[in-house]
Amino acid sequence: MEIDKITPETEERKIKVTEAEVIVRRCNTGFYFEIKYKRAGEEHYNIGYGSCNIHVVFDWLDRCFEFVSPEKGN
Fold first, then answer.
1. Burial, 71: exposed, middle or buried (Cβ in 10 Å; 0-12, 13-18, 19+)?
2. I need a labelling partner for 36 at 20 to 30 A (CA). Which of 1, 24, 28, 62 fits?
3. Buried b / exposed e across 20-45, counting CB within 10 Å, b at 16+?
4. Which tens digit of pLDDT belongs to each residue from 21-68?
5. Residues in contact with 44: Cβ distance below 8 Å, sequence separation at least 6, in sequence order
6. Comparing 12 with 55, which gets the higher pLDDT?
């Protein structure tokens, strides 16, 4: 897995994905939530769009990602 360096502020159009899920990490200040996703046409997963506020992460999931079927890829 690689860490995606795109932030919601720099992304202008939705990322086409076949899979996406919110993952949780425990850190010394509480919990940290990130989106693990697979872009259409790629074999690997990316992790990015992280925040300590789960509501922000779910908002990014809705605003920044478009789900497509694996066969289509677009």
1. exposed
2. 28
3. bebeeeeeeeeebbbbbbbbbeeeeb
4. 999 999 999 999 999 999 999 999 999 999 999 999 999 999 999 999
5. 1, 2, 38
6. 55
Q: CA nearest 37: which of 55, 24, 23, 56?
A: 23
Contacts of 51 (CB under 8 A, 6+ apart): 32, 33, 57, 60
pTM comes to: 0.77
Q: What residues have CB less than 8 Å from 56, skipping those under 6 apart?
A: none
